[in-house]
Amino acid sequence: PERSTNLLGVRHILLVLSGKGGVGKSTVSTELALALRHRGHRVGILDVDLCGPSIPRMLRVQDRAVHQCDSGWVPVFVGQDRAIALMSIGFLLERPDDAVVWRGPKKNALIKQFVTDVAWGDLDFLIVDTPPGTSDEHISTVEALRPYRLLGAILVTTPQ
Fold first, then answer.
1. Which partner for 64 in 60, 76, 143, 148 could form a disulfide, CB atoms 3.0-4.6 Å apart?
2. Keywords in UniProt for this one (predicted)?
3. pLDDT digit string, tens, across residues 30-61
């Protein structure tokens, strides 16, 4: 696959996954980003949970809008110090609670666009919050990220 220059400044990419919904992927993604930021790292979160984009609400930026620049979409920056860069479909919806009812090809195209067209700048870590399950979105995400430095994955589970 083609390599985007927008991820060249990202040192490490971490996927946050689970086999089912409601186990805390978005919470783990958010807390991990905050902990890494607290340690002085430059951090971004890519929320590819297209049906339930909760990261903007968790970081209290759900009312923000995404803007374009020469190299693509500018992520939303969180906090007065603009400490965490964030991209989510939640910023592209008319109302943040709107449901996204799309078929696979459209979802996969948006994921690929999120990977290639967001101007992240220099980041130490990019955390990718994925949807629940083992769907096409996961395959699309991994395929789109294959040319980059994927550090690993965090699998969020529950004890039942």
1. 76
2. 4Fe-4S, ATP-binding, Iron, Iron-sulfur, Metal-binding, Nucleotide-binding
3. 999 999 999 999 999 999 887 778 899 999 99
